[in-house]
Design goal:
PmbA/TldD fold; single chain; 2 domains; globular; 24 strands; alpha+beta; seven-stranded mixed beta sheet
Length: 463
Amino acid sequence: MRDLLKECIKDEDGFVELRYHKKESRSFYAEKERVENSSIKKRSGVGVRVLVDGSWGFAFTSELDKMSIQNALTNAKNSAKSSAPFRKDKILNLAKGKLAVGNFPGKGVEDISSRSIEEKIALVYETQKKANHASSKIQSVGVGYSEIFEDKTIVTTDGVDVSFSLVRPEFRVSATASQDGSIQMGGESSGVTGGWDCLFRDRAPEQFTQDAIKTAIDLLDSKFPEGGMSTVILSPSIVGLLVHEAIGHTVEADFVLSGSVAKGKINTRVASDLVSLSDSGISEYYEGAGGTLPVDDEGIFTEKTTIIEDGILKSYLHNRETASLFGVQPTGSARAWEYSDQPLIRMRNTYLHPGDSSLDEMIQSTKDGYFLEGAQNGQADSTGEFMFAVQKAYRIENGKITKLLKGVTVSGLAFDVLQNVDMVSKEFKWDLGSGYCGKGQPAKVDAGGPYVRTRVLLGGSKS
């Protein structure tokens, strides 16, 4: 494929980028001792992007032959020429960055592909069947497994010449419990870039169901919180959700140019000096983070980008275009979901760096507060204001964890929350690998970090 793409652009004078993308996904879901859903999808094609007269042009084709690709190239050029007169801010240059050359096979691809469809269906069926009679309070248990294989080849007229592959398996369990008219749910999931050993590194499949069932049952007897400004210890999943939704998006350079809260704050204090935050295509600390990839969709190596260092904002996330505007190097953050999508600035693996405290020390030194665990849905905007739902909240009283609470939400301004951080744990975990980020198109990401103590506005629903 690399030879074909290079042949298609060998006589081109301007900037041309060809991106071949093959994607194969499978998913299986079991409930009520039967497989409810089984699907397999395959798609492949070439996305063509050109820069003509200071304007982008884009086209794509699912036909993988020279004539079809060159026809798409002609269409992309015509599109750029047509739009150029209407573009006020011309794209004068693209930052060079570390252009990728070579072949980068993904870890775990051989492992996952060698396992039969029957084995994967048996995984969800047998795991679900064992969980069915765990308690009379359990109404249903659902078990799902999915995987995405990807192969990409990117060539450009300015030197990118790269191929890579990866696989992203996911496993998730949901349990519903009821008692006296009350219904509660518990959920557990794992999503990685890598093999079976990464997916089930921390827990066997049966442990996922046991944990989900226990959460659902325990929440039946729990109470609602009092609410108000509170000292909280955030688990890695909630730290990950916070840094992704409320910080990460505000430092994506396209959002910065649109006026996000991070605009104009480079080299200024935005957090406690205990806080350092990065985004990386590499899985830092241990392998398998869900957003791992060696090269972005512009052919730039996806190295670690330090966003906040000791509380000081140091960098935004850039593609080649915005990096040129800001006079910096691209950060390998341009990503496209399908061959028919144009690359957008996206996060990869976003995380807070671990600190020097232990979780036990954090709990024992908290006289009055809450331990929050299990990120659920939430939202944030360009001001950094956020509201997230929490699956489990435990009261901390006199340095000890006491009762479980339900219906808990946390809200605030992200940079204020980071300014209030006074303890950061040594422990670290990637914990959002089964999630997807939405920004016009999906993106597979991960986020996480250590346990963090800070202050947030705590609320809860009584419905």
